[in-house]
Amino acid sequence: MRSHLRAGIAIHNAGNHHAAHDAWEERWLESDGDDERFLHGLIQFTAAIHHARERNWTGATGLADSASDYLAALPSPYRGVDVAAVRAFLAALRADPERIERAPPLALTHEDRELTLTDLDFDASTITAAVFAENSDYDETMIERAVGYARADLDDGRPTSPFVTLVLDFARGENRGIVHQRLAEHTERRRAREHDVDGLFEV
């Protein structure tokens, strides 16, 4: 839960409100009780902002209302998130959805810190990388494979391997297009080496 929560918060804070829900959705579908209400509320919170930015005022106010209902009974903070601040923002958005054009949306905090993409550890960054690959014109399969290679390198005690570095760079948005190309090249070379090694043992 923690890594997915932090990934979605950082994605939202980076301005990718619609994409943020992809970091939370799987955990939301698996959860129940307060966790289910919490994640459902956050997903609808980001959706309300997305609709407001699209000037869909009816959709924005409806989602702000339902998000408020999901979050209403939760303590604040909940799982490190200032739920009271989220509820206050939703109430203001519901009353005046056009406020989104006059002021930026609420930035979410986790454990009193306003998270950015560079604040995320490796596990949360891999979630972020998958979300950006899914929501943009990037090769999701290649990114998934690159993440696997990065994890293997970390397990082998190689925290500065090209895969670890490039996966983090891709997740953090540092020249993402160029990084994607470099990851593709490294991944193809590594797959070719693995294929060559496997061929040595074929009869």
From TrEMBL:
Membrane-crossing segments per the record: none
InterPro entries: DUF309, TTHA0068_sf
Cross-referenced Pfam families: DUF309
Matching SUPFAM superfamilies: TTHA0068-like
Matching PANTHER family: EXPRESSED PROTEIN (PTHR34796:SF1)
Name listed for the protein in its UniProt record: DUF309 domain-containing protein
